[in-house]
Design brief:
2 copies of one chain form a homodimer. Chain A is α/β, with parallel strands linked by helices. Chain A is built from 18 helices and 19 strands. Chain A starts with 17 loop residues before the first strand and ends with a strand.
Chain lengths: 512, 512
């Protein structure tokens, strides 16, 4: 049932415009546009603005909707409007610029969100409208939260998932490639160390396939692929630079942020994380919109399942796989989903430089290279080779290309093409965490291990993080080092240690 | 299906505490607690806080969860934390106080909200937990929005409504009265001028019944009952003062804000308005929690239904009536819901003093008193008299008590008991809006009429608002005044006029 509130935006009038002077107050509210205006200002009294109402702010031909916070102190003048960084960027302001403040026009798409809440199915047009308004910054966090909650409470069917994905693709940039096939891979997050991408790209490209891989920086994890890769080569390439690298080497590993692929996803994912709500439909649209926008034709998805991974049950994994495959088909994208072991981190290093060291060890065929990282990388690469139809036994070919050095040579050439190979930095402060008792390693908490690496400074401190010396099932003696924490400053080492001392279940050793 | 995000609060560690100095930055964010800290501060780097994350702030034995905004300018020192007014109040701070900042503990009740989103029914304990955390300020607007959306997408059944109502009652103050019955009335909002309460209370109290009426001030309307009453007598009475008035006169009309009845409602209603989501369950719990907390035993609800009223259809009205009656029963509250005409405002004046003038005209039996206000007031009072069992034909008795002056004398005594009767102020600036053509009045838009009154300065300017000279169906000649705008300043009159000129459908006159 619907009862209209008095604040119904449909009743918002277009009243007078008020000219104010923009002031950069240097407040980071992430994506939400916030405007600070004195409570006793003319505009607040005249327009009846109250704290937390949405207002329209225009500068030249640009306009945004923003959330109003009222200032009761005098850190602003009566004719000044302080803008958050997000609002400042979107309006392209310089201090003192004249801006026009007024009541916001109706955000049309909110009525479809309300409809969804009450059980009405989205149609394609309404999802387009919603995504357009989200990217235009018309949605406050309250609206974003309602949208995400509605999509979880009233799950999207396959059509809605497909329309949402298409809408998210269309509001961003779309890359096109003259050649076919265009390979891609994606790992569903939550598993520290899982740095297979550079190895997979090197192998696949060494086999003559095209794989223009755009990766993300860490948001809540100790390292994203882009952070790790950045310790070995430049990753901030624009589209034309990416094209040059692909034409020369067939593969690249770059930061996706420089290319505006599926910008809506970047906005939604933040609120999804805060709510800890992440529906099948949202995850499918989030993953596939970026891949489709990147111009991929063949995709392998690494789906780690484990008690402390992002996906925790077989049912969840099955539902997600079904959604990914079905929606991919609608876009002519060939997708294979591989369910992998998410019980513990992959490789030894966690943190940009430490993960890069593992990647290089695998590519250089070091005897000491982590076997799990090598095996998982060749498995994923093998799946891509099979998907492209250039191998029956993909992993066999992948192992061969890795062993005979072709992958390593290709990786070096890719780094050169991206701007020159770099040597990952090394940490100055280290501490080896000893086993409190003898026994077998019975559990490794992915989330807490990641937390230790972050407290030690990762990903901002490239060399920071930690180095795992044991894996599940290993037998350890008392006082034997379980993992070594790496940091760039003694203070950060202390933070990680304080957390380690306060949490006994980061890495559990059971009696035997 | 549930996929856990990396930000899963259950994994939030209890890391070190950081001592900072509190600074009042004078920023009004309504209920949401916001803390401003430098991005390059020690605490942000050490704890890995990013903008928009929730943090814990402690001062002495008080602690709140707040939303973090990061400051990239130097209007704060590295060891300073700027707090919004809401956070400042809740922590009871004075400038420079030492506060401790840390990661917030898990907000347990969020998991029940998540469960509701995925279709799990609330149980009584989970609703208690949610309401407790909401009142404690543990819910950011993102969480509140998710809760409200979930309750609309997964409608509450009668048990859930009852539990929610009880939880909302229990977190606030509860009034108890030695006498029975304790009468009460409520009008579902959205209808300008609908100021029946002072008249109803006067009639009912004059008949010897107890009716301790607490009313609200306007939030988005041009006047609340408390605003109107405040122009005739003091309304800011504390509980003991209310008791004295009731013991002496049996009735009162006071502001509920001085008494903390159902504080959760005040927090939820704000986000419901912003979302324009207002489910049956939320409205039932909102209305009844306040009445039950006020110690009422018999309640009459005025439910205006009309195209521009809050409730617009007969179906909505029926569902709402069923919920109100059923939940009332669970609390032993005798409730009768009267569906009334919500097609146009009630009375002539809209705005505190202008509505007070109408109220006094009815109580004093002026020949010119608005008949609709008199009839509706005696109808509601009559229903209460019948509900209390002291009259078969309630309205007949109500009319009699009004006509013979008993109601007027009772009202004067109530005003005296509340602190002394006052004369409502008069406006200095007026403008009569003329009919643009001859014909019949075919429509009056409640929301836009309210908007005109607000732009003219109501409710802050007590004398401001407007005076309706015509009603639906009236025949008007060209240039005949339709309504007069009242303001305290020429500027405010101009704002209202600008809006009137821009909106032709505030009051529509059709050809005949």
């Amino acid at each position: 049932m619907t009862i209209r509130g008095e604040e119904n935006p449909m009743d918002r009038p277009d009243t007078d415009m008020h000219v104010m002077h923009a002031r950069r107050v240097g407040i980071d509210t992430q994506y939400e546009a916030v405007v600070f205006i004195r409570k006793d200002s003319h505009v607040c009294r005249a327009e009846g603005f109250t704290a937390h109402t949405r207002i329209r702010v225009q500068h030249g031909r640009r306009a945004i909707n923003a959330t109003l916070y009222q200032v009761t102190s005098d850190f602003l003048h009566h004719d000044e409007a302080g803008l958050s960084e997000a609002a400042w960027r979107r309006l392209g302001l310089t201090d003192g610029d004249e801006i026009v403040v007024s009541h916001p026009p109706l955000v049309e798409s909110l009525s479809s969100v309300r409809g969804k809440v009450y059980g009405r199915r989205f149609d394609e047009a309404s999802l387009r409208g919603i995504v357009r308004d989200v990217v235009a910054g018309q949605y406050s966090d309250i609206y974003l939260s309602s949208l995400i909650t509605a999509c979880s409470a009233r799950p999207l069917d396959l059509d809605e998932m497909t329309w949402l994905t298409r809408a998210m693709v269309d509001v961003g940039e779309v890359l096109q490639w003259p050649m076919r096939p265009v390979m891609d891979k994606h790992s569903v997050g939550g598993l520290p160390g899982n740095r297979t991408t550079p190895i997979v790209v090197a192998i696949v490209a060494a086999c003559g396939l095209v794989i223009p891989k755009t990766s993300s920086r860490a948001i809540t994890s100790p390292a994203g692929t882009a952070d790790t890769m950045a310790t070995m080569a430049p990753v901030d390439l624009d589209i034309s630079a990416i094209r040059r690298v692909i034409e020369r080497e067939g593969g690249c590993i770059v930061w996706g942020g420089a290319v505006r692929l599926s910008p809506a996803d970047d906005i939604l994912i933040r609120v999804e994380r805060a709510l800890d709500l992440d529906s099948e439909g949202q995850l499918v649209a989030s993953v596939l919109s970026k891949k489709i926008a990147a111009g991929s034709t063949h995709l392998v998805v690494d789906l780690p399942v484990g008690p402390t991974a992002k996906v925790r049950t077989a049912e969840t994994a099955a539902a997600l796989t079904a959604g990914l495959v079905a929606v991919s088909k609608a876009f002519g994208l060939e997708t294979r989903v591989l369910r992998t072991d998410g019980a513990q981190p992959v490789g030894r290093g966690i943190g940009p430089a430490l993960e890069a060291r593992d990647v290089l060890a695998v590519l250089q065929n070091h005897v000491a290279a982590p076997a799990d990282l090598r095996d998982k990388s060749t498995m994923l690469a093998g799946a891509l080779l099979e998907l492209a139809g250039i191998a029956k036994e993909g992993q066999v070919l992948a192992v061969e290309v890795l062993r005979d050095g072709r992958a390593w040579r290709k990786f070096q050439r890719i780094c050169e093409a991206q701007g020159g190979m770099r040597v990952p930095p090394q940490s100055c402060c280290r501490y080896a965490v000893p086993a409190a008792q003898a026994g077998r390693v019975t559990g490794i908490n992915n989330r807490k291990i990641a937390r230790v690496a972050k407290l030690a400074g990762a990903p901002d401190a490239k060399a920071a993080g930690l180095d795992l010396h044991v894996r599940l099932g290993d037998r350890v003696e008392i006082a034997q080092p379980l993992y070594t924490i790496h940091a760039d400053a003694p203070g950060e080492l202390d933070y990680a240690l304080a957390y380690v001392q306060a949490n006994s279940d980061i890495l559990t050793v059971g009696d035997t």
